[in-house]
Design a protein that fits this description.
The chain is of the alpha+beta class and 730 residues long. It is 48% helix and 22% strand.
Length: 730
């Protein structure tokens, strides 16, 4: 008897040493469970041994098993709900060993499994780790006789050491897991410092999966429209999981993602059979059983959620805490990326504003400014379409500039008009004078009909005011589901201010040009009046006086008064000279050849009278506005005079032509050059006349290389430049 007892104790000690050696060697818990089951089964002469773990959802899971026959049994990972009368349930309820010697009277899911395995007698003992019930160690017999009476005692003694072995193995796993987790966090911290958000999202989901070993890891962003979008995803199968990147679903119902959104706190569901809502439907599609989600907050604002899911047993109790460390890094990555993007965006915006401001400063035509502002704005705000529209006096809006991200022509071209009304950005800005935002789902009216074929989903507009007057609206539009950023209205304002400045400057420039044109026109009219007065008054009186002197007076002089006759002839000759000088003066005030025949004969007359040979080429059909013809005539006259007086040239080339609504005059000589626009009053006055008509005069006169004067004059009905409204569109 003593020898038999001594042998049994020695066998138990040997078994425990083998288990302890296994634990000391750093074996995994799964390996420890398998060895414990085998050692206990052999020691107690059982037919079946099972190591079971109690789960938080009221179930027991087999994590290790041994069969005395050596036959493979599908026991590991078998789960059964606790309840009724069976060994696992009795141990769970009493925290003490339990026995059932007649399985015919047993009940509950564990008993059903036992009967399927032909068990007759079972004994279970609790496994406690650090004072907490962890599981149950069960031995079973398929023989008719019951297990020995001391089985409970021997099993209980053994489970104390088994609990220690399991605790040590778990401690090693936890330590290894902690080291792996810290290494993963270090890798993530390095990635956060240099990677884009998309790279961080992909890496974080993979690292979480490596550390926590779930079946699925998902990172979702909460969107302003009550939906969530998957921005990172990982699946243990290596195939597309339930939420691939880009998947969108509405919030709502009873599920982890919606609970985290509603509370801003971690959430867990260990039985997804009771979950509801669109998100739960997707999760159940891949067999979700247990899901844990932790919020991702960026600068105090709920940004999204990190979720891990299991299709098997519930996730460990510390999952929420371990996930939180990763979500903090994600939040840092997002904040850093947003800061970098905001800084880059600010720099790009300032550069765009500088380019537009330079354009405005050099008094570029409004149409050119409109096109530049619209393009710069569309690029800076990453819009799909950017528009500038002008309000008309009849409650209409007209598109004066358009830009598309694809470079394609917009379906509604520049110059298109539509009536205001309904609920849309153009109408709201018109009525309120303030920025407006409108999703397509809420929009109505003619403006909405115009833009519907563009596929617009969201529009934001800001008013353009000129000197306290609402002129138009600047609009950016998006074809994507996500709305335009919240700061779009504020960023629009910087560009609309530049547009307003450009319009005000253009209107001032046009008003100044019109004023100068009126002065020139008034001067020309005065000259024509003086010419007419000279012709109809002084010239006619002098002609009449000369005729009277040569006729009536001279006939009354006696033939012998030769001296008086000579004096009368001298006076008549002087009158003829005065008349010629008066005619020349009148011709200078307003060339009669220009008035009678137009530009071509007038320039031919100038060329004939020039002291320097002139090669003249005139390609002008018909008459031009009076002021344009006068400006061209005086350009040629002034340059011919200057060349003859100062250039020492041998030939002058004069070319005059019209095309594309512009009259171009080019005068070149082969003289000594060195002419200066500020060197005399003639060119200065000529420049004023040309610019007053909306034209441009350029002078190129390098020393020793001749002089070239070029004038461009717009040919309009009135001979004056168009207004900003005319340049902007119909």
């Amino acid at each position: 008897m003593a020898t038999r007892l001594s042998g049994r104790i020695a066998a138990e000690q040997a078994a425990l040493r083998r288990v302890a050696t296994l634990v000391a060697g750093g074996a995994s818990p799964e390996a420890v469970f398998a060895v414990v089951a085998e050692e206990v089964g052999r020691l107690l002469g059982a037919d079946l041994t099972i190591v079971g773990r109690y789960d938080p959802d009221g179930a027991v899971t087999a994590v290790g098993a041994w069969s005395g026959t050596g036959a493979a049994l599908p026991i590991p990972d078998t789960r059964a709900c606790l309840g009724d009368r069976n060994t696992a349930t009795l141990v769970f309820r009493t925290r003490r060993p339990a026995r059932i010697d007649d399985y015919a009277n047993a009940s509950g899911p564990p008993a059903e499994n036992g009967r399927r395995w032909a068990l007759r007698s079972t004994v279970g003992a609790p496994i406690s780790i650090e004072g907490r019930l962890w599981g149950v160690l069960t031995v079973a017999s398929t023989r008719a006789e019951s297990l020995p009476a001391d089985t409970e005692g021997r099993l209980a003694d053994f489970t104390q050491l088994v609990g220690t072995a399991i605790a040590n193995a778990q401690a090693r796993v936890e330590l290894r897991g902690f080291a792996e987790e810290q290494a993963a966090l270090r890798r993530m911290a390095t990635l956060v410092a240099r990677a884009t958000p998309e790279e961080v999202f992909a890496a974080v989901t993979a690292e979480v999966a490596r550390v926590l070993s779930p079946d699925v890891t998902i990172m979702n962003r909460y969107d302003p429209d009550g939906t969530h979008t998957a921005v990172g995803a990982w699946s243990s199968t290596g195939t597309a999981g339930p939420f691939t990147v880009g998947t969108r679903a509405p919030l709502g119902g009873r599920n982890v993602i919606s609970q985290v959104f509603a509370t801003g706190r971690p959430a867990r569901m260990d039985d997804y059979a009771d979950a509801s809502g669109p998100t739960a439907d997707i999760a159940r599609g891949w067999g979700a059983r247990s899901v844990v989600g932790v919020p991702i907050s960026v600068e105090g604002r709920l940004w999204g959620v990190m979720c891990v899911g299991s299709g098997r047993e519930p996730l460990p109790a510390d999952t929420e805490e371990r996930l939180a460390a990763f979500t903090e890094l994600v939040a840092t990555a997002i904040a850093n990326a947003q800061a970098r993007m905001e800084l880059r965006s600010h720099a790009e915006e300032q550069a765009a504003l500088r380019r537009v401001a330079t354009l405005v400063a050099r008094a570029a035509p409004p149409a050119e400014v409109f096109a530049a502002v619209t393009a710069e704005l569309g690029r800076v705000l990453s819009a799909d379409v950017a528009l500038m529209s002008r309000y008309g006096p009849d409650d209409t809006a007209t598109i004066v500039s358009a830009w598309t991200s694809t470079g394609a022509a917009p379906p509604t071209p520049v110059g298109s008009g539509f009536e205001l009304g309904g609920r849309n950005v153009h109408t709201l800005v018109f009525h309120t004078g303030r920025p407006a935002r409108m999703p397509r789902a809420e929009a109505s009216g003619a403006a909405t009909d115009v833009f519907r074929e563009w596929g617009i989903r969201t529009a934001v507009g800001a008013p353009i005011g000129v000197e306290g007057r609402l002129w138009g609206v600047m609009t950016v539009l998006s074809t994507h589901d996500e709305p335009l950023p919240a700061d779009t209205e504020a960023r629009l304002a910087g560009f609309t201010e530049l547009v307003a400045t450009a319009l005000a400057d253009a209107e001032t420039q046009v008003a100044l040009t019109a004023s100068r044109a009126r002065i020139v026109a008034a001067g020309d009219a005065t000259r024509r009046r003086i010419e007419r007065d000279l012709h109809d008054g002084a010239q006619q009186r002098l002609v009449s006086l000369a005729l009277h002197l040569r006729g009536t007076v001279r006939a009354a002089v006696p033939p012998e008064a030769t001296e008086l006759t000579a004096r009368l002839d001298a006076v008549a000759s002087e009158l003829a000279g005065v008349l010629d000088e008066l005619r020349e003066l009148a011709r200078g005030l307003h060339p009669s050849a220009l008035a009678d025949g137009g530009l071509r004969p007038a320039l031919k007359a100038l060329a004939r009278r020039s002291a320097v040979p002139v090669r003249l080429e005139v390609r002008v059909d018909g008459r031009l506005p009076d002021q344009v013809e006068l400006a061209a005539y005086y350009t040629v006259a002034e340059t011919l005079t200057n060349t003859a007086a100062h250039a020492s040239a041998t030939v002058i080339d004069v070319e005059v032509e019209t095309g594309e609504g512009v009259l171009r005059v080019r005068v070149r000589d082969d003289g000594r050059g060195g002419a200066d626009l500020t060197g005399g009053s003639g060119l200065v006055e000529l420049t004023d006349r040309v610019e007053a008509l909306g034209g441009r005069l350029s002078l190129h006169s390098p020393p020793g290389a001749g002089t070239r004067v070029q004038v461009s004059l717009p040919v309009t009905a009135a001979g004056t430049p168009a207004s900003p409204a005319a340049e902007a569109g119909p």
